[in-house]
Model the fold of this input.
Amino acid sequence: MTSSVRYELVDGIGVITVDNPPVNALSHAVRQGIHDALAAAQQDTSIAVLIVCEGRTFIAGADITEFGKPPKEPHLPDLCNSIEASSKLVVAAVHGTALGGGLEVALACHYRCAVQGARVGFPEVKLGLLPGAGGTQRLPRLIGAGAALDLMTSGNPVDAAQAANLGLIDHIVNGDLGDAALAWCGELAAKDVQRRRTSELAVESVPDGMLDAYRATLARRARGQIAPQKIVDCVEASLTLPFTEGLRIERENFIECLQSPQSAALRHMFFAEREAARVQGLSKDMPLRDVNRVGVIGAGTMGSGIAMNFANAGMQVALLEVSDEALGKGLGIIDRNYQGGVKRGKMSEEQALEYRGRITGTTDYESLSDADLVIEAVFENLELKQEVFGKLDAVCRQGAILATNTSYQNVDRIAAATKRPQDVIGLHFFSPAHIMKLLEVVRAEKTADDVLATCMALAKKIRKTPVVSGVCYGFIGNRMLGHYAREAQLCVIEGATPEQVDAVMEEWGMAMGPLAVFDLAGLDVGFKARQGLPEAERGDPRAFRVADALVEMNRLGQKTGAGFYRYDPDTRKRSSDPVVLTLIEREAAELGVTRGDIDADEIVDRLLFALVNEGMNILDEGIAQRPGDIDVVYVYGYGFPAWRGGPMHYADSVGLAHVLERVREFEQRFGSENWTPAPLLEKLVSNGNTLAEWANSGSE
Ligand code: 3H9
Done:
């Protein structure tokens, strides 16, 4: 039919096989191939039609790379309608993942079977889209409006068993899908079952007010996002309008979403995440080191969380502490985390026991002698870390990977404490380490290529999203954060309140405002980090006046019940504290600052363009491989809204010339110490390039 679709008669059944690696996306050739095969099946002697896929999965959706290009016929909605209208029985046989447009194809078939373990879902919302080939109209007809809304607005897939319970899948197959599906299709055809057309089903009505309540929940849960609300509009249409009218509403909404900046940002993130896993200059076939046994040094919150990642992925973990008491505390944290996971339904009791069983405690470095990877997660102090690496050098087997989880320290200097700097790397986890997806993989000057490649592959195994960073103070994320944090605190000194700064940034889309984040992380953390730096490197001293004063008052943030805010001991709910405002006014007066109003636009621009400007320097210095890597760091590690596409994509979307204009304005107003335009920003603006163009052209 086409290079991506075969059609053949097998035992009287017309089998349409999609073969478009890696995920059988519905490219033009696939749509054309299915269209042609279906037309052929209407004319030949086949008694029914079966749609199956080669390779690791059923159709995983529309081809995302085609979005934004001129659309080519046959369009997917029309193809789905023709499948449904087929005079011959059409059956879908699902394995792997039937996602988005792939599930829409399956829903247009008259019957669906799936192999045990297959998963189906509508992830469009994660791309700022909605199912646009009849999914929003067929799904409520099949499983009811409520369940359809849950599936489409969460974007999360369900497994075959759940899908069968919902009524999405008619038959579950054990063993080989091809043969079993063919046999089942033959049985259905022999019984001459009805051509069950989903579009002809009625949607069960929903209680009054249900849709409005759903919209209100989404307004909180998916704050600022368009697509989830539009999904509700489409489901409403399925309840109130004939099928074809519903399809028209769906089409209009789909196009609007497709053309929205939110979808552009989310699609950028989809590819940026996958691109970030690739290391420039490393061959794909690089032999990797085996990692089965892992050592973790330091059983604090970080070390304990790190240990869990590896245990959950099937590796044996030895967790080392200096004393039995400290070890007991760490293992206690781990037990509580696992119990929490069971309570939240993330894992079963048995799984938790199995994972926990892979972690053993030790106080003896000799126990790490057979480890393939050791991760140090001790206190942020260079001398201490160097001492640990010296010990590791003495006990670890040759070829073991020695990693540091430092957030700030120089990995080259840590590596220099060993006689094997080629085996040393930074693996910077984010707190809570068993939950946060980001992993900064810090490539030190002498890190061997296979050590880096092994760690990138390992990140995927432990379900993290890795981003490579070069060595600098704070790496990609924390180095940029320093600039964002400075502006947040300067805004407070100059006239804003913590509440205002946080509300503005949360309204803009950040998961949490900056001052609330400092309280969560602990104000003493930044305080100690600053004390460890020479005075000249601590940054603008005015910025940290309030935070430092709070630390002196033992208001360390959430853990002491007070910081920039006061926290309810039971609910942890934050509330304003007049003491803080008095403190801010006192500090401002001492600095000779006359406080005045700062509007929301200025707060947003100062905080975000401080991030962007430093991101440009990080790119220029080669600390980050590409702009998309920085975006991945911010979305997965710092609560940056994915629908804004990360700071660097955001800069492109508002226009680099605008960013530069604002940076220059801030330089004029606040001085060049904090606001020197990054040379790369100036260069791109003078060449009229976007960052995306610069990255695609090889960053010249
Ligand atoms: C949609 O369907 C809209 C319709 O409702 C309406 C239309 C009118 N297109 O993730 P992986 C590439 S919207 C193009 O590493 P895994 C991916 O970039 C779509 N390319 O593998 C990567 O390329 P590379 C709704 C795609 O095994 C390679 O395949 N569907 C697509 O970890 C391997 O991907 C989705 O949103 C695509 N649709 O995970 C599903 N999908 O090797 C999106 C993947 O060059 N996809 N690629 O980096 C996924 O969630 C995962 O890829 C999947 C496999 C779970 C399928």
